[in-house]
Amino acid sequence: MPCPPPATSSSLLEPAITALKNQQITFDSLLNGLLDHPVLAQPVSENAATICEKLYKKNNDGVFSWAFDLIRERVCCEVLTLTEKRHGLHFNATKAKTDQLEGAFIQSAAEKMRKFGPCLWSLIGSLLNPDRKRRRRATQCVSQEDTLQRMGSSAEMDLDEIGDYTGMTSVETKNQSSQVDDDGSPANGESADEEGTFNNVKITKEKRKQRAAERNDTLDTVKAVVSISIFMQNANENCNYLQSVLGFFFHSTAVPEKVIETLAHAGLSISLTSIHRAIKSLSSDAAQAVRGAVRTLKAGFAYDNFDSTFKVSEPTVQHRSIFVSATSATVIPLYDVVNAEVLRCSNQLWEKDPLNPRKSVHTVMIDYNNLGKLHEDNPIFNSIAGPGELDDSMAEDDESLKDEDVEPTPYIETNAWHIRNILIEHGPACLKRFSKENGQPKPINQIPVHQTTQIPCRAMNIKESTADGNIEVIETLLRQGGIGDPRDAGFDPANDVDMSEYVVFAHGDLLTKERVESAQKSRRIEDTPKRRFQFVVFIPGLFHFKMAAADAIWRTWVQPVAGRKDPNSLSRHIGILRPEETGKFASKPGFRRMHDVIHHDIWASMLDCWKLEVAREDPRWVSLNAFAHDKPSWDLIIKLSNRIARKHIGTTHTISDERFKPLEKRDIVNENQLLRNRDELLYLELSHAMNNGDIGRVEATFLPWVYMFRATGKHKYAAHTVRFMFHLREFYPPELAQLIRMNWLCNPTGKPGGFRGVDWLVERNNLYTKVIYGGSGSNRTIDRIIEESILIEHFRTCHITVENGFHLQHRTIHHAKPDMTRTLEQLGRHFDEVSPHLFNLERKLERVHAVPDQVEEGINSILETGVLQDTSTVEAGTHEQPEVEADDLAD
Predict the structure, then answer these.
(1) CB within 10 Å: which end of the chain, N or C, has fewer?
(2) Is 233 exposed, middle or buried (0-12, 13-18, 19+ CB in 10 A)?
(3) Strand, coil or helix: what is 239?
(4) Half-sphere exposure of residue 761: CA atoms within 13 angstroms, side-chain side
(5) Where exactly are the structural domains of the chain?
(6) What angle (nearest 5°) sits at the alpha carbon of residue 213, between those of residues 209 and 218?
(7) What pLDDT was estimated at residue 265?
């Protein structure tokens, strides 16, 4: 008997279907019954996705239309939820506040979008990565939580953090603006090596793969936030936080108005009108911040002039190219003000001020015959002009080692530290293990590491190159800050603070100091402290002081034509270090070039000294590599560095003794080299002490610089430096003098080694005001510069927000620091040929010029005249302040 055919699912349901028809139960009633049934409801709900999938296969269009409508309704509700004001994604241009530009906006927005719009976030993420395999691989490599934690975590680079891309892969630097495949290779099909190197660090393929996945996921998050932000703004025009931040960013980078309008129509920016309203609101908020800081009477001012030329394509009588000399300023809250009463000493200072016609306290005068007294507390560099460690330090014999067991002087210790540091940083790589042992020089008066805050003031269309201009500048700054004298007509008792008994710090360059002192002298007979300007405590800028020091070395070692005949002259070394720029060094090299050359020259010189002394210690050490290969002890390195400091660094005493000898017993090449070692190490110490915030070590270098300034024709720098040293020691109360020292340098980054002169900060602001944020084309006007100068810090903050949020890694205007290894090796070969550190009576001396010891020349000049400043001599360049360029600020 044949078997019956197997029953199908439809045939099995026939009795049930017949029963449902007999009972007149519709499908809709059946489904509702099943969902309401206490037993069957759960399995029906659990299999809902399977049921919908099967229905979709049977009726594609109908089910898809239903599902699409459902998803559309869901994501639209989520978009409307995100536009609610409680989520903090609104930006009112007319009530914009500066704090709205701070923080990791993209990260914050992404977290809110994930939380309150999960379906929308997931949908956008899928659309950005339609390839399921790639999306799955990316999810395995990187989690969303890790991505959000990374975003917005980095800070702005300082100008001198040049090309610091440590930790970035070669893939990242090569493909900054393009996606990278998940295998670590470029998405455009370019080949990538199995292993890449960056900054001498090998990066494996797995690390590249992980970095590429992290980068791609970060960029996908950015794109998702941007896409959803466009949806949100389209739904609610007040929900425009991203567009407002980007609009402010575009405006600050001088993006053309047509481009901004295009981006606004695309949903990526607010309108030009809204941007201008936001600028006005933010300017008002910034002005209140200036008043808030100054009214505490615990803040100082720093200001300087900046020049700009506004050209027109076709000058006419009505519209001509104009040159404008304006003034920028900033407020710097004082650091380490434990007791504000320290600043309440204006009357006390006036009682003993030489300008006071009715002073009641005898004025102490500067003793120019004993300037060393100004450094009694830290006389490290006074010994530059004093006796050397060894009277016969020029000779190459065993006697030169006789005092090695004697405790080194502070001067020897300071130079020895730099000599060791040069070996560790620029010698054989294996010696870098001694970095920790070398540490830092012993501090004298260290400013604790802290981050300096500044509040830029509104720039002023005032020419401050005259005494009257400085008076107008200072009075304008006091009005911006909301402080003054109640006896003045413009004083507002309700809003202004009485500062008549307080002093106010003012930072600036030498020319500004001269103008302020001229104003104080002309107003000394006025009847109120404010009108006499007695409240101004002017602090000379150390950045310009260092520029003057570099110029003094140039005037000594490069400018004189006679000195270039020396086969070992600095000009010859410049020909090796910078062969294409020798002409520029002969005229006006600028600060940055001299700063770099001084460092590179002293590095090569000290490495040559190391090579000589290690060979003398052990003949087997024919090179520094051989010395490093034998793993020398730290005690030996200290011993040799002290020997080099005694033997190869000249002092006025030792050089003078040599130059009193008959010519046939002299080696002028050796004399010049020891003198240049001294001068360049002095500059190295000044630069290092400034960068590390040891104001005591900075002050310790002043006296030799004063002598060199005097000898090289920089009389005003010499006079003003001595006068300020004297005021710190004799005129200002000790508490005020220490407060001045603690605020003489600033640290914009808050990092060790990040200290700079306050005048450096002003020059950087000028760069931002004139060049970076000053507009372009027809938008670049003095009115715009003045209006928006108060916002430069907020522009920078906005740039940080955008750079971090949009994963912009390359955010410095400079390039990576060059590798000087081969250049120093080439200069080292020149040292081997000339042997300037070896005393040699066989040299031909006919054409060699003995470079004068400028310290000795300066001492003699001061002792002869009895005063420091020769008013009959006009200092070259005094009235032509050198233009500070961007490279000069990368210090």
Answers:
(1) N
(2) buried
(3) coil
(4) 30
(5) 83-270
(6) 150
(7) 95
Q: What is the pLDDT of residues 579-590, one digit of tens each?
A: 999 888 988 898
Specify whether the CB–CB gap between 677 and 650 falls below 8 A. yes
* Amino acid at position 817, single letter: K
CB-based burial of residue 161 (10 Å sphere; 0-12 exposed, 13-18 middle, 19+ buried)?
A: middle
CA distance linking residue 803 with residue 808, whole number of Å: 5
Q: CA-CA distances (angstroms) from residue 278 to 237, 249, 273, 459?
A: 15, 12, 9, 19
Tokens at 722, concatenated:
């001595």
pTM of the model: 0.84
pLDDT at 395: 36
Alpha-carbon 776 to chain mean position: 24
User: How confident is the model over 636-645, as pLDDT tens digits?
Assistant: 999 999 999 9
Give the residue among 796, 837, 859 at the shortest CA–CA distance from 671.
837
Q: What percent of the chain has pLDDT over 70?
A: 80
Measure Cα distances from 54 to 35, 143, 528 in Å.
Answer: 19, 33, 94
* Residue positions counted in the chain: 891
Residue 453 CA to residue 330 CA, distance in Å, equals 10
Helix axes 241-252, 105-116, angle to 10 degrees: 160
pLDDT digits (tens, 9 = 90+) for 227-239: 999 999 999 998 9
SS3 300: strand
Beta strands in 139-292 (DSSP E): 196-198, 201-203
Cα(366)–Cα(452) distance, integer angstroms: 34
DSSP 455-515: EEPPPB---TTSHHHHHHHHHHHHHHHTEE-TTSTT--TTT-EE-TTS-EEEEE-HHHHHH
Amino acid letter, 772:
I
Task: With CA atoms as reference, report the closest residue to 704 among 386, 257, 359, 471.
Answer: 386
Q: Distance between CA 470 and CA 506 in Å, rounded? A: 11
For 264, how many CA atoms within 13 A lie in the half-sphere containing its CB? 20
Q: Tokens 């090596």 map to which residue? A: 193
User: Which residues have a Cβ under 8 Å from the Cβ of 371 and sit 6 or more positions away?
Assistant: 703, 706, 722, 862
What is the phi/psi pair of residue 528, to 5°?
A: -125, 155
Distances in Å between the Cα of 71 and the Cα atoms of 64, 74, 116, 119, 229 are 10, 5, 15, 8, 19
- The rounded distance, in Å, linking the Cα atoms of 257 and 280 is 17
Contact 286, 745 (CB under 8 A): no
Look at the block and give the residue holding tokens 């209006």. 787
Residue 182 in this model has a pLDDT that exceeds 50 = no
Q: How confident is the model at residue 694 (pLDDT cuts 50, 70, 90)?
A: very high
Count the Cβ atoms, other than its own, within 10 Å of residue 565: 14
Instruction: Specify the DSSP element, H or E, that contains 249.
Output: helix 241-252
